[in-house]
Amino acid sequence: MKRIFGVMVVLLLAVSFLAACGEATPAEFTLSSVTVSPSAPVVNDTVTISATVTNVGEQSGDCDVSLTIGDYTDSKSVSSLAGGASSSVSFSYDATSEGTYTATLETPNATATKSFTVKIEGEDGDGDEVGAVPTWSVGDNWVYTCSYVDAEGTSYEDVELNVTMVAEVPAGTEEGITEDSYKLSAVFVPEATRVAADMPLTLHVGTAGVWNSKEYMEYLKQSSAIAELPGIPSSITWNYTGDYGWPYETGKTWSAAVRTVAGTIIDETVDRESKVLGVETITVPAGTFECYHIVSYDPASPDTYTSESWFNATVVKSNVKEIDRSTWSGAETRVLKSYSVS
């Protein structure tokens, strides 16, 4: 009887101990902060993204760690990680274009992120480019989504603007082209509906020609085919004074006389000043890019911008975004959807 009693006591103590302790907690995987190496990558670097995985549970377990950078994904497995143990995990990412990126690492239980910026080799600390003027080749193409709101606040259908470089034009070989330029063909799909700036007239624009200075990258001339003005040439030309356009530097300013002509209906010239406000990182459907933010304005109203552009010099080699508040009543905004440049 005493022996049986003693065994019962031992069993009761064992049960009490197990009840007090409970079962070992399941595996749970946390992440340390994410590190990126090199810390200041340039285009074509291989970037290493690393973190430490820790099993804060008591049971051993397996987990997958995933990496996401934009549309890029990768994953790695951590096997049989004991309770309380840690393991490092690293991924390699090829930085093929400039921009700001966010690396996101995930386990079944945790998420950690780290942002990093990829620059072009040769950029200075302010993001200003060091090098020659960007160049275009025949066939280079940029596609923009264009939205438009007139001065009364009415929004119009978004259209696509397909811009292609079609020729190099020597100075003096075409009217209004005073220096060597690139000629571009621009097509709106479908036709863009716009309201004239100085009269209550709705217009439809199907195509346009654009001439940009090869040396300074600024507009020299634009012409439009307007359905309501068949056979009537409509154009805008820029006549610059002094050192203008490229190379862009924060704080640089220049002036131009901008002439708008539509047959014998309109012939108007206004003075405009332009200024490089600085270097900004912006995101559009085509990606994330470092851009020069350039504004234009009436010299009498320097805080009221008649146009704004965000120009990327190294990857897109053109405007990533534009806001035009002078050509039409209201504002037209163009954001880069895709591009193909040599």
Plain-language structure description:
The protein has two domains: 90 residues, Immunoglobulin-like (Sandwich); 200 residues, YmcC-like fold (Beta Barrel). By secondary structure, the protein is mainly beta. The N and C termini lie far apart (96 Å). The strands form three sheets. Strands 9-10-11-12-13-14-15-16-17-18-19-20 form a twelve-stranded antiparallel barrel. Strands 1, 2, 3 and 6 form a four-stranded antiparallel sheet that branches. A hairpin with an 8-residue loop joins strand 2 and strand 3. The chain contains one helix and 20 strands. The N terminus is likely disordered.
The share of residues in extended strands comes to over 45%
Query: What would you say the CATH architecture of the largest domain is?
Result: Beta Barrel
Determine the fraction of residues in helical runs and give it as a percent range. Answer: under 10%
Which class of the largest domain in CATH terms?
A: Mainly Beta
Q: What letter string, H or E per element, gives the SSE order? A: HEEEEEEEEEEEEEEEEEEEE
CATH topology description of the largest domain: YmcC-like fold
Uncertain parts: 1-21, 124-130
- Round the Cα radius of gyration to an integer and report it: 31 Å
Total strands: the figure is: 20
How are the strands of the biggest sheet laid out side by side? Answer: 9-10-11-12-13-14-15-16-17-18-19-20
Task: Provide the domain count.
Answer: 2
> How would you state the average pLDDT, rounded?
87
Q: What general form does the structure show?
A: elongated
Helix tally? 1
How far apart are the termini? 96 Å
Largest sheet: 12 strands, antiparallel, barrel
Structural category is: mainly beta
